[in-house]
Amino acid sequence: MVSNTDKISQKLNVSLEIPLPPDSILIKRIELENMRKQSLVGVYWNMKDLEVHVSKKQYWIKENILFKEKFKMILDSTNGGFVYYPKVQGQTWSFHAIKMAEFLDKNFSEIFS
């Protein structure tokens, strides 16, 4: 039979120092996200920028994102979206960076499935 004295819980307090390299700092995740968003304020991507962020080539992006009918209705600036679709050959694509990044995050599974 186990007595009450055998059920005494034990605690161990430990103090631990972990040195950080001089070029590193610790910040809260929310602060990091805010800094990332701020870095995109007022920034517009072109197609090459989008290729870098999606890690896919222009053809794939057009086929799987930009010209997919349900996405185009959301994205196209003529519908109030945040992507400028060129009207004639020679014009460049323009993407509102923050909104496009949020769209890609929100629709990741649908885009890549």
Structural descriptors:
6 helices, single chain, 113 residues, mainly alpha
Structure description:
- The chain has 113 residues and is mainly α.
- It is 43% helix and 6% strand.
- It has helices at residues 29-39, 47-54, 58-66, 69-75, 97-106, 108-111; strands spanning 44-45, 83-84, 94-96.
- Strands 1-3-2 form a three-stranded antiparallel beta sheet.
Query: Could you tell me the mean pLDDT?
Result: 91
Q: Report the biggest beta sheet as strand number plus sense, adding barrel if it closes.
A: 3 strands, antiparallel
Q: Helical proportion?
A: 40-55%
Number of strands: 3
> What is the radius of gyration?
25 Å
> In which order are the strands of the major sheet placed?
1-3-2
Q: How much of the polypeptide forms β-strand, as a percent range?
A: 5-15%
- Which of globular, elongated, flat, extended, rod-shaped describes the shape? elongated
Spell the H/E element sequence. HEHHHEEHH
Distance between the termini: 59 Å
DSSP summary: helix tally: 6
Low-confidence stretches: none
Helix/strand class: mainly alpha
Describe this structure in a few short sentences:
The chain is mainly alpha-helical and 113 residues long. It is 43% helix and 6% strand. A three-stranded antiparallel β-sheet has the order 1-3-2.
